[in-house]
Automatic annotation (TrEMBL):
Spans annotated as Disordered: 1-53
Segments of skewed composition (Low complexity): 33-44
GO MF term list: protein-disulfide reductase activity
Organism: Grammatophora oceanica
InterPro entries on file: Thioredoxin-like_sf, Thioredoxin_CS, Thioredoxin_domain
Keyword Electron transport: yes
The protein's name: Thioredoxin domain-containing protein
PROSITE patterns named in the record: THIOREDOXIN_1, THIOREDOXIN_2
Domain of life: Eukaryota
Keywords assigned by UniProt, alphabetized: Disulfide bond, Electron transport, Transport
The Thioredoxin domain, residue ranges: 95-221
Pfam family, one: Thioredoxin
Length: 222
């Protein structure tokens, strides 16, 4: 059975006093938002082969990038490139990093220590493919004040959780069908899924880093 917990923070309550669309629990009610666009037809689920790391096409993509672009991606992936003087060194370092990320994440969109933005197909892959780590998913709305408040806390939590937990976010305005499918009624809603893709627990309302880590730990305890 899934347990639903509502978490309130002082910061969210103060924010709520200035935002009529935010309730006292620090979450934005779904009904109070601007009209949600009609659900688009979901993209077909990828076949297992499409989730395999394509080394050749990735290598070609990296070699087509400029050195500045390669260095920027190295920085976002915490790869030290100061001693890499040849472009091919940057390419090979990123190729290795991307391949490692593909083993961590079924869709290849998530990397250890980072918050990855998923689309509908990628979320389907993450939940539908057995994994070695749980998934912490933030379902948010771009107009939601508490969602903006929690965003940097989610980043901090992801950095600390590292490769123990996949951390992702999903834009409910772009993919309303997933909000309906998961029974989301307020934003943000953070849902913890086990490695088997089944829901473990959820929290409605903005929560801080420590609470996000405690939530993730529920699926890490033996």
């Amino acid at each position: 059975a899934t347990t639903t917990t509502t978490t309130t923070t002082k910061e969210v309550e103060e924010s709520a006093s200035d935002d009529s669309s935010t309730n006292v629990s620090g979450s934005a009610e779904k009904e109070s938002s601007a009209p949600v666009p009609a659900p688009e037809t979901a993209s077909p689920a990828p076949s297992p082969n499409s989730l395999e790391f394509d080394r050749e096409s990735t290598l070609a993509e990296l070699r087509a990038m400029r050195v500045k672009e390669l260095r920027t991606e190295c920085a976002t992936r915490s790869i030290r490139w100061g001693n890499m003087f040849e472009k091919e060194e940057l390419v090979q370092a990123l190729l290795q990093a991307r391949e490692a990320a593909s083993h961590f994440s079924a869709s290849g969109a998530l990397s250890p220590g980072e918050v990855g933005a998923l689309n509908d197909v990628q979320l389907e892959a993450e939940l539908g493919t057995p994994a070695s780590t749980p998934l912490l998913l933030d379902i948010y709305a771009t107009w939601c004040g508490p969602c903006k408040l929690m965003a940097p806390e989610l980043v901090k939590a992801a950095e600390e959780l590292g490769d123990r937990v996949r951390v992702a976010k999903l834009d409910s305005d772009q993919y309303p069908q997933w909000s309906s499918k998961l029974g989301v009624g307020a934003f943000p809603t953070v849902i913890l899924f086990g490695p088997d893709g089944k829901e473990v627990q959820r929290v409605e309302g903005a929560v801080m880093k420590a609470d996000l880590i405690r939530l993730a730990d529920l699926s890490l305890k033996p």
